[in-house]
Each structure stands twice: as C-alpha cells, then as structure tokens.
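To the structural biology subgroup,

Please find below the input and predicted structure for NitT/TauT family transport system permease protein, which we are adding to the shared reference set this quarter. The sequence is reproduced verbatim from the submission form. If anyone notices a discrepancy with their own records, reply to this email rather than editing the shared folder directly, so we keep one authoritative version.
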Amino acid sequence: MSNKAKTIIWPLIFGIGFLLVWEFGFLHQLLDLKHFQLPVPSQIGITLYNNLSKALSDAVVTISGALIGMALGSFLGFMIAVIATCFPKWGYGGMILVTALNAIPIVALSPIMNLWFSTGMIQKIGVVTVVCMAAMAINAYSGLNNLKPYSVDLMHSVAADHWTIFKKLRLPNCLPNVFTAFKINVAGSIIAAIISEYFASSTAGLGFGIKDHLRKAEMAMGWSYIVVASLAGVLIYLIILLVERDAIKWHASQR
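Predicted structure (tokenized):
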C-alpha cells in the first residue's frame, strides 16, 4: 500500500469506527450521557436531510460573513507585515498591536462589536476581521524576512532597488506562509462568525440556529447545524489547498 493511500484509508477507518461507536451507544456509556443529550449520527443525518434548505440558507449567511471578514483581516494583516518589513523602525509597532488584539477572547470581542455596529452582518465581519489579522501578519512577516542566506546581498550586488527585492525575492518567499495563514484563518473565521451570531442581534446564521435549537432542546437540529459548519470549513480548506497547489507548485512542499 502506498503512503498516499495510507494517509486516506487510516483516517477514514478511524472516522467510520468513531461514528459506529457513537451510533451504537458506546460513547454514551463512556461519557454517561443520555440519547436526548447527545443524538446519534443517524438521527442527526435524518434531521439535517429534513431541514436541509433551512440549514443551507443559514450556512450561506454565516459563511459569507466569515469569508468577507477573513479577506479583510488577511489583507490588513498582510499590509501590517509589509509595513513592518519596509519600515522596521516604527512599522513593527503594528505587529505588536495586532498580536495584542489577537489576545482578546472572541467572547469579549463580540459584545464590543455589537456596540460599535448596528447590523448583525457588520458585527460578524468586524469580529472575524480582528481574529484573522494576527495569523496573517505573523506568518507573512516571517516569510518576508526569513530569506536564504546572502540572497539580499546578492540582489544588492546587481544593483536591485528595494521594490525589485520585494517583488522578486521577499514576495515569492512569503507565499507559502501566506497560504499557511489562510488555512489557519479558515477555522478561525468560521468559529468567530458562529460565536458572533451567538451574541449578536441577528436572527439568521448557524450560530443563531445552534443557540436557538439547543435552547428549545432540539438537540438533533442543533447538532445538524454543527455538522454543516464543519463540512463548510472542510470544503473551504480543500479549496485553499487546491489553490495553493497551483499557485506555489515550485515550492518544495508541493512536490
């Protein structure tokens, strides 16, 4: 069996085994839970199938806010890294600031955004933007500055100016780090969007749906929303992997 097949088959066997343990109640016995507290996978699947259009409608609301916020946060984080690289004397202060912002818990950030903005979508985008800035800024700064030894000296020896060094050397070098940041931000953006909906005044989205259905003790429906959020995260992650494979095919990680 090839290594590539092993990386697919073993996780698949583990996942199926976990679902069977869950389905036949062994997980309930292990955690001392009742079936109404933790619905089995078949019940969650049937509930999701019967309410698929509503779940997808709420998923569109959450994912759109998460993607817009991730794009804004990633752009701002990248620009902070560029400024810190080009103007290290004063620009590095932005890196310290964005790191400090990243230390604020999402559950504290969401009420703050609720006070700043009036609509649920803007509140959600604001939270996701702040959450995604740090990962991009730190990763991009690392890629822009961790260059091969003597590479900058070699560019200077051929009279390359700062813009040429940035375009020909620093920017290509940071692309793998940028995609790493995107992959980190996928999970962070969806979690931030769901938590924001949990606290915001919105009446749509996966976060609101999870809160509303769990409050009504509709556990299977609440879990079906969690399944949709997980599948959406996996799908976006796979899309980024495909784009990464095509964009930096020259890099050692893609060979």
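Summary notes: The chain is about 80% helix and 0% strand. Residues 40-254 form a domain with the MetI-like fold fold (CATH 1.10.3720.10).

Regards,
Lab coordination
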